[in-house]
Amino acid sequence: MNLYTRTGDKGETSVIGGRVPKDDARVEAYGTIDECNAFVGLAICQLEDDRFGERYADLRSQLRQVQHELFDCGSDLSYVRPGKLGYKVTEEMAARLESWIDQLDGEAPPLKRFILPGGSPASAALHVCRTVCRRAERRVVTLGKQREINWQVAVYLNRLSDYFFAAARAVNARAGVADTEYERSGEVFR
Prior knowledge:
- The chain contains 5 helices and 4 strands, in the order ββαααβααβ.
- The protein has one domain: Cobalamin adenosyltransferase-like (Hypothetical Protein Ta1238, Chain: A, Up-down Bundle), CATH 1.20.1200.
- Helix 1 packs antiparallel against helix 2, helix 3 packs parallel to helix 5 and helix 4 packs antiparallel against helix 5.
- The chain has 190 residues and is mainly α.
- The N and C termini lie far apart (58 Å).
- The chain is elongated and about 50 Å long.
């Protein structure tokens, strides 16, 4: 089997149930989700350094699960006629993210001001995941205005970006690295 098919050479790609232009809102949405997934893989690599031992084992496990769920999101968006075979992304997935967020948020100092992305390399990688996830969510919202979709994908992505924020802060806290506050921010979190 060849990795190349040449079927997309004229600007179209296959989706479940047909073909669409490569710049179709559906392809843009699940393509951005795929981009987010690649950055999640990079974040996992940042957390796998041997010197960390088991410090980040829970986060690596969670992030691997997120990678599978991001594939589920892309799958749910790839149908020309949505819902015919059932959806993979459910309310329960977002609820589970909420429990992870609550646990991770308890590890970091309380927020008073906006923070700058960064700190440790792993935290910075998770902030990149957060921003790409937000873009993916915007693309899904655009798609949802044009076509029927599983709206739970947008809900999941919204919660996932919050998870990445909480995880980035927890990574810094575990590493003993302070978040850098945005110096022109007033106290916005009370």
